[in-house]
Write a structure and sequence with these properties.
Blueprint: H1 20-29, H2 35-53, H3 57-68, E1 72-79, E2 82-89, H4 92-109, H5 115-127, H6 132-146
Antiparallel strand pairs: 1-2
Length: 155
């Protein structure tokens, strides 16, 4: 039998925007425990977004995150020797997790001089409903739609 589930540690809101979501995003962006570097990259990216678009960079980031957030996903389930991709709704906590991971991942894969540039460009693209992270969400939704016939096998 499994032990009790680990307690979620409360996140401290970040210093600049006083938002726990920003802290969570910075934690996803961080490599090798270098939080101050991750904070600098995020703040530079937000500043670049505001200078490029002429709007509030923080609001654009929130919009980008909302645009990349998936509603459904497919999960593999073995039934009678065959593996089916079964569409299921995404939990609220996982939605946020996936959207942040996709934004960071596809920012890293972009072309650009610095990580702040890459992240800024991906945020702008995602807020407009384009870019690799947004495409990933669309692909996940398309997969779920294509496998809707197996939804009666719910996990």
């Amino acid at each position: 039998m499994r032990k009790a589930q680990a307690k979620k540690l409360p996140l401290a809101p970040d210093a600049r925007f006083n938002d726990k979501m920003v802290t969570r995003f910075i934690n996803n962006l961080m490599w090798d425990g270098k939080k101050s570097s991750a904070i600098k990259i995020f703040n530079d990216a937000v500043d670049k977004v505001s200078s490029i678009t002429g709007e509030d960079g923080y609001e654009i980031w929130k919009k980008a995150l909302a645009n990349v957030t998936p509603a459904v996903e497919v999960r593999s389930r073995r039934i009678g020797g065959a593996t089916f991709q079964i569409p299921s709704e995404v939990r609220a906590d996982r939605k946020i997790s996936l959207s942040m991971k996709w934004l960071v991942r596809y920012s890293r894969e972009r072309n650009g001089k610095t990580m702040a540039d890459k992240l800024a460009n991906e945020i702008i693209a995602a807020s407009k409903g384009e870019g690799a992270a947004f495409k990933k969400k669309e692909d996940v939704h398309r997969m779920a739609e294509a496998n809707k016939a197996f939804s009666h096998f719910k996990v």
